[in-house]
Amino acid sequence: MAALIHKMREKQPLLPAEQQELADWLNSNESNTQLLETLQNRENLTAELEALMQYDEDNAVAAIFSALGEPLPAVAPKATIKMGSFLAAASLLVLIGLASWFYLLKTGSTKNGGPSIVYKTISTAPGEQHRVLLADGSEVWLSAASSIRYPASFKGDTREVAITGEAYFSVTKDKTKPFLVTANNAQVQVVGTKFDVMAYSDEDATRVTLLEGSVRVGRRQRAEGREEETVVLKPGEQVSVSRSSGLSQPIPVQTDEVTAWREGQFRFNETDIPSIMRQIARWYKVKIEYNGAVDDIHFSGQISRKEHINELLDILSDTRKVHFEMTNDSTIVVIPGHK
To answer: Which of 86, 125, 142, 208 has the most crowded CB, counting CB atoms within 10 A?
Structure first.
């Protein structure tokens, strides 16, 4: 099977018998489809290789290939593979990634016999978005300048992930295994639902917005001796968790404004200029400086994130409430009033 997947990665045509073998393998187990997606993704495959490097004994490597039913490569993988030469070693990486996946799922053990949890981290750069499929079928969309850390497979009584930045979740329902999201000092507990978590470090609070279902939001850490405080959200509500004032009461919000980034849009509704500029900085990878007070200036409107940054700044300038100057080092200076 590793050889067939390698042929697919190299865009080599499969024979009819090979196509049938691949189809039978995919249909035999739902997790095989996810495995194929993982192995076709460079970032995921790199993460699998990094996980495999934990097993640095020769007999462990041999056991991995034995579990797969593949012959041990003549050249030792650890001695020859370097992360910087990923493409040159693609065929061997497929074998290693496939073998390590099955070995970890079948044995669930580490070198000392304890349970093994392999974590992956996926990050987005400014101006990027990324969809992540979790082992339970839940989907996560990462906004720009964000990251998620999650296990390759969910073990135990909960499904736990951690994010920075902003992410939209569509969680597969499982009443026996709650889904937990940690973001800064907030923790969100759900069973199956759709919600958005915004937890950028330059924001004054972590905000959780519910679109469907129900979620319980609390502080990640509480003061010793104090009863834990939580809030249950209804669809269309948002709650904030700040380090200074703690957990807020739910408020109604326009969810389409909160999740507009998923549709490739900037959408503002009486949004203050500093908040707008933070979004611009994350998407266009620019620095922001202020030459005067602009906190009381607000703007409503919508524009595609595909537009050039100058187009967006021109629209804001047309309000004649604020204008901008761009320096040579990609710094935008925000100045109140018109030119």
So the answer is: 208
| SS3 of 51-110 | HHCCCCCHHHHHHHHHHHCCCCCCCCHHHHCCHHHCHHHHHHHHHHHHHHHHHHHHHCEC
Contact 199, 206 (CB under 8 A): yes
Q: pLDDT per residue over 308-318, tens digit each?
A: 999 999 999 99
Chosen domain end from 116, 148, 178: 116
- For 175-204, give the DSSP string: TTS-EEEEETTEEEEESS-EEEEEE-TTSS
Q: What is the pTM of this model?
A: 0.65
**Inter-residue contact 240 to 207 (CB < 8 Å):** yes
**Do 131 and 248 sit in the same domain of this protein?**
yes
Q: What is the mean pLDDT of residues 21-29?
A: 69
| Residue 201, domain CATH | 2.60.120.1440
Q: Is 151 within 8 Å of 108 (Cβ atoms)?
A: no
Question: Is residue 245 within 8 Å of residue 220, measured between CB atoms?
Answer: no
Q: Highest-confidence range of 29-38, 64-73, 255-264, by mean pLDDT?
A: 255-264
Q: Check residue 82 and give its pLDDT.
A: 44
Classify strands 179-183 and 159-170 as parallel, antiparallel or unpaired: parallel
Element (H, E) at 335: strand 331-336
